Amino acid sequence: MAEGKNNVGVPGLLEMKRRGEKIGMLTAYDYPTARILDRAGADVLLVGDSLGMVVLGYDSTVYVTLEDVIHHTRAVARGADRALVISDLPFGSYEAGPERALNSAVRLIKEGGATAVKLEGGVEVASSVRAIAGAGIPVVGHVGLTPQSSAGSGGFKVRARTAAEAREILRNARALEEAGAFMVVAEAVPAPVGEMLSRSLEVPVVGIGAGSGCDGQVLVSTDMLGIQEEMTPRYLKRYAALAGEMDRAVRDYLSEVKGGEFPGEEHAYGMENGEREKLWGPEED
What span, in angstroms and rounded, lies between the C-alpha atoms of 123 and 128? Predict the structure, then answer.
């Protein structure tokens, strides 16, 4: 991440929780979007493996490779002067154990330019979190709905509907914190569970579909901006309708091109005085 005088770092996020200031986090996958989100004041930019579905056109995140995430992280890191950049460890890049997880995390930092990495799971990945954090790499956990393993755990559904399930998620979140995670993302859990997690952990808990009691919120930028309109989870609020605006702009452009209205004189370059007339005259020796 580019060095700037107002960088949000890991200590800054911990301090935000301490003083009760909410953390604003959004996904980013390219340089121009990162620039816009960063300048608007986002605290954290997440290069999520959601890029597989919203950028690369897959129907799942499991097809995303480590190379994909590195590629997109490079672009986001170049566009972030203030926000902390976190990159997802994609499916297959850490499940084999701590050594594989650490190697993948190192690549995201060295080759991608991320500041921190994120991985899904609880107790079962605590040893990998410990290895990554032990190497000096900031690491974020992810509990609740974990998209990479959703096919084998009930699909994209709300988790922790019962108190017993909520306590299990809390156990997993605590294991991540104890292993060295500096932040935990909680996805698709009832609002009381999100609040319980935030109150129980010393590290920030950022929610996505986890209620207002979390220490911060994260949304997929293409969802909240209305660039894609297929996903409509209950927790999503659209702050713009850019798909419709883009459609209108493209239609206007095509209409003007086909009608000969674009480009106009104001969009064209001229020649030096007297040179235009020579274009159709006899060639000079």
Answer: 10
Total count of domains within the chain: 1
* Dist CA 126 CA 246 (whole Å): 44
For the stretch 96-110, pLDDT in tens is 999 999 999 999 999
Q: pLDDT band at 150, cuts 50/70/90?
A: low
Q: Is residue 275 part of a domain?
A: no
- With vertex at residue 45, the alpha carbon angle to CA 43 and CA 51, rounded to the nearest 5 degrees, is 160
**263: preceding bond cis by omega (within 30 degrees):** yes
Out of 165, 187, 245, 265, which one is annotated catalytic? 187
Q: Which two structure tokens, joined as six digits, stand for 195?
A: 């609040």
Share of the chain above pLDDT 90, in %: 86
Whether residue 188 lies inside any domain: the answer is yes
Q: Give a yes or no: residue 273 inside a domain.
A: no
Q: Where are the alpha helices (DSSP H) in 162-211?
A: 163-179, 191-200
The domain of 79 spans 10-244
CA 42 from chain center: how many Å?
Answer: 11
Inside any domain, residue 260? no
Percent of the chain with pLDDT over 70: 94
Give me the pLDDT at residue 3, please. Answer: 44
* pLDDT higher than threshold 90 for residue 2: no
Instruction: Please report, for the domain that includes residue 119, its CATH number.
Output: 3.20.20.60
pTM over 0.90: yes
**Is 187 designated active site?**
yes
